[in-house]
Design goal:
Mean pLDDT: 82
Structural class: mainly alpha
Distance between the termini: 79 Å
Largest sheet: none
Low-confidence stretches: none
Number of helices: 2
Number of strands: 0
Length: about 80
């Protein structure tokens, strides 16, 4: 049970009994749920797959290789001839 109320900088009541508005509005019905379809999950996955098609992620190049041993530390392996 709320005991306090807050308002924002626009003098509007903030977040009281109101959640976050969705980015993608998805209507799901009991029949979807009954048939085993999570239409909200499917819409989210489809949205992300389309976003990946438009701008595929690019991996940055790997950093330069580090030396096997820090400088000045002798290798425990015998030198190869």
């Amino acid at each position: 049970m709320p005991e306090d109320a807050i308002y924002d900088l626009d003098s509007q009541w903030a977040i009281e009994n109101h959640g976050v508005d969705p980015d993608i509005v998805v209507d799901d019905s009991p029949s979807d749920w009954e048939s085993g379809h999570d239409v909200q999950l499917e819409a989210g996955v489809n949205y992300l797959l389309e976003a990946l098609k438009k701008a595929a992620p690019v991996l940055p190049p790997p950093p330069p290789l580090l030396p096997a041993y820090p400088p000045g530390v002798p290798s425990p392996l015998p030198p190869s001839n």
